[in-house]
Design a protein that fits this description.
Elements lengths: L2 E6 L16 H4 L4 H13 L3 E4 L14 H6 L11 H7 L5 E7 L5 H14 L4 E6 L4 H5 L9 H19 L7 E4 L4 E3 L9 E2 L4 E2 L14 E4 L4 H10 L2 E4 L4 H17 L8 E10 L3 H13 L4 H14 L24 H8 L7 H6 L6 E5 L1 H15 L3 E4 L5 H17 L12 H5 L3
Parallel strand pairs: 1-2, 1-13, 2-3, 3-4, 4-9, 9-10, 10-11, 11-12, 11-13
Antiparallel strand pairs: 5-6, 7-8
Helix pairs in contact: 2-15, 5-7, 7-8, 8-9, 9-14, 14-15
The structure holds flavin mononucleotide.
Length: 435
């Protein structure tokens, strides 16, 4: 058995808002409707979690202006996803909901309190995706002149996590007395300041709210670089991973097992979810045709422009891909953003042109093409070979793709007995770690 998650890659932002199947997203993306439909469908299908991305900037690296960003709505506009979580939880009963918080955007106290509040409101189904933010424009919205370099960002994230974890433990397990006669609500000797003093954060504590059903909300981590892996090995319950083949999946799993053991944890304490993009169709041929059409559209100038914009984003706003000749070589700078993603893009790119790169295949993990039955078989086989814990699916978000995955693919996986057929526990972590 393996787990399924859905990566909501553009957070509480605009989902496809033009073209076929966009529905009314252009004007209704600010409302919860599509996200509620998504989450209830995922629960019906037996997903473990919905994973909500977030970023806080209007990028203007590409071409030195926000024109391309706002022409297509690329990662902006985007609403704050935290207030969306209780609305999704109110419509569901079991599925876990992980929301993104950046260690440069949220002071630890605010993050710890906000996440515990969500844990109460979701009755133990809240998770936090801890990220370090990617571009200078984000950092500049939070009081910094520019973003920290990669190593320092992760040092700060480690400290942030230590501080947040200490706050989550600042109320002892038996601090609540709940004696209405005396009266005595809590035992003050079991609610203690944390007196945290680090290089980046200084917090007295204790947290001013009581622990939620999970005490420690589920922690997710998405960076795949060495410091990203370390952060996950020390702190995370689940990690999002990029791999293109079962062999790469296996290698990452082994690497993480060693790191977990070094940090005194067990390999089964961390579930690794591999990104995967499904291209479904009624038949294998239909799926292949859709996949081919999808690739053919990459030659469209609008598509090339969006891909180049995205590469600029992934570089951390360091490389302006608009400056380079489309028919010339690919600039080989990794930048300071999503370094694992940037390296994956640049791999083997010395011999091709920038146009080839812009028109080429995506880089969001494994791609699966086929009917529901065929794809279920491919996914089961890949998991079997790699020994991973699950897939984090990253389809585009339209009501059509939601149906295809939740009412086509997931039932086919269930028939094979490779995904859950219900939820045996109450909380997100218990379900996530139950097998
Ligand atoms: C699948 C995936 C999802 C991510 N989600 C977010 C996000 O929601 N917000 C964000 O600022 N960064 C996000 N990131 C960035 C990472 O959390 C990390 O900070 C960055 O990729 C640095 O990665 P590295 O360790 O590979 O260099 C994501 C990265 C990946 C691969």
């Amino acid at each position: 058995m393996f787990r399924l998650g859905w990566f909501l890659g553009n957070g509480f932002g605009m989902q496809p808002w033009f073209g076929d199947w966009a529905g009314r997203s252009m004007t209704e993306w600010t409302q919860p409707g599509l996200y509620v439909d998504l989450t209830t469908s995922l629960e019906r299908a037996g997903f473990d979690l919905l994973f909500i991305e977030d970023t806080s900037m209007v990028e203007d690296t590409y071409g030195g202006s926000a024109e391309t960003t706002l022409k297509y709505g690329l990662m902006a506009p985007k609403n704050d996803p935290v207030p969306l979580v209780p609305l999704l939880a109110a419509a569901t009963e079991h599925i876990g909901i992980a929301v993104t918080m950046s260690t440069i955007q949220y002071p630890p106290f605010l993050a710890a309190r906000s996440m515990v509040t969500l844990d109460h409101l979701t009755k133990g189904r809240a998770g936090v995706n801890v990220v370090t933010s990617v571009t200078h424009r984000v950092a500049q919205n939070f009081g910094y002149d520019q973003h920290f370099d990669h190593a320092e960002r992760y040092a700060m994230a480690e400290e942030w996590m230590d501080c947040v974890s200490a706050l989550w433990e600042s109320w002892g397990p038996d601090a609540l007395v709940h004696d209405q006669v005396t009266p005595r609500y809590a035992d003050h000797t079991k609610v203690t300041p944390i007196d945290f003093v680090g290089r980046y954060f200084k917090v007295r504590g204790p947290l001013n709210t009581i622990p939620g059903p999970q005490r420690r909300p589920v922690v997710a981590q998405a960076g795949n670089s060495t410091p990203g892996r370390e952060l996950a090995a020390r702190n995370a319950d689940t990690m999002l991973a990029l791999a293109k083949t079962p062999a790469e999946m296996k290698a990452l799993r082994q690497d993480m097992d060693e790191r977990l053991i070094r940090h005194g944890r067990k390999p089964e304490d961390l579930k690794i979810l591999f990104m995967a993009v499904p291209f479904l169709g009624d038949t294998d041929r239909d799926a292949q045709e859709r996949f081919d059409r999808h690739h053919a559209r990459k030659k469209d100038p609008n598509s090339i422009e969006q891909r180049l914009w995205y590469l600029s984003y992934v570089s951390g706003g360091v490389v302006d891909y608009k400056k380079y000749d489309l028919d010339g070589p690919v600039p080989q700078e990794v930048g300071n953003g999503e370094t694992t993603t940037a390296k994956a893009w640049l791999e083997g790119s010395r011999d091709i042109t920038l146009r080839d790169l812009a028109e080429g295949p995506g880089n969001y993990g494994m791609e699966f093409v086929g009917s529901s039955e065929t794809m279920a078989g491919q996914m089961a086989e890949a998991m079997e070979e790699a020994g991973g814990d699950g897939f984090l699916l990253y389809p585009e978000v339209t009501r059509r793709s939601i149906m295809e995955v939740c009412d086509g693919l997931a039932p086919a996986l269930r028939r094979r007995g490779v995904i859950r057929d219900g939820y045996s526990h109450k909380t997100f972590r218990e379900n996530l770690l139950s097998f």
